Amino acid sequence: MTQLQFEGKDLAEAVIQRMADSPDARFKQVLTSLVKHAHAFVQDVDLQPEEWMTAIEFLTACGKMCDEKRQEFILLSDTLGISMLVVALEQARGAAALKANPPKGTPTEATVLGPFFWEGAPELPLGADISDHQSGEPCYYHGQVTDTAGKPLEGAILDVWSGDGDGFYDMQKGDGNTMALRARFRTDKNGYYHYWSIKPAFYPVPDDGPVGGMLRRMGRHPNRPGHMHTVLQAGGHERLVTHIFVSDSPYIESDAVFGVRESLIAQFKSHAAGTAPDGRVMAMPFHSAHYDFHLVPSSA
Length: 300
Ligand code: BEZ
Ligand code: FE
Fold this sequence. Notes:
Low-confidence stretches: none
CATH architecture of the largest domain: Sandwich
Shape: globular
Bound molecules: benzoic acid, fe (iii) ion
Number of helices: 6
Largest sheet: 5 strands, mixed
Radius of gyration: 23 Å
CATH class of the largest domain: Mainly Beta
CATH superfamily of the largest domain: Aromatic compound dioxygenase
Helix content: 25-40%
Mean pLDDT: 94
Strand content: 15-25%
CATH topology of the largest domain: Protocatechuate 3,4-Dioxygenase, subunit A
Distance between the termini: 51 Å
């Protein structure tokens, strides 16, 4: 006889059984696990009806906060460490795909993209200064892009962007429509890159919405340590989304989105006014950061 009634402990299994005819095997696998874990969570915390309603109101508020400029659900995923988990799993999957023919050396680690990537930043010549009257202390960035075996990658494209010295991105300033502190650079024939920008400051992730409220209730701060976003692309190699983190930045040990990787922390050296490594004469003190990137060959 068809079962009509399900007790608490049988409900998850009943929902899973109803998916028996789903034509999409992967979808079925993901939803099966989701239902199992969600039911186990409700059981585990003995969820009260008013608590479930609070959660639904929270998710509704997250949805209402989303538009083309603000994505509260991604922020929720970021602050719960899920975005970083997905990034780490994807990089591990890429490494596993190369197992039959493992590349020498270690690839540069990936981290979160964040909400401030802006497609179409101008390509500038190596050595250009993108600080352009923005607040912040000048910083000279330099290094080499190679494959994991150390072979220099000529013509690799680095898309770089950061907040200003007060922690604000161009999208958050003025009308939000004017690009600043972002550009694309192409490595030279030996894989080298160099450019000038500023030493990025720590800043809070947007915390004026429901996720900010959640962080406060968790007793957490909303800050990310200073970092230079860098997306690298080179023919025949996997695209890499990463950051260079500022070694002496506040919050380096407690990034609100769990994006820090020890291997991505660069020493930012301080220099007195004078001649910089590229020959530029600086009338004011400046910093320099050296970082080499190592890309993995495409698996496809
Ligand atoms: C960022 O680095 O720009 C960022 C990343 C995740 C959430 C908010 C901001
Ligand atoms: Fe950022």
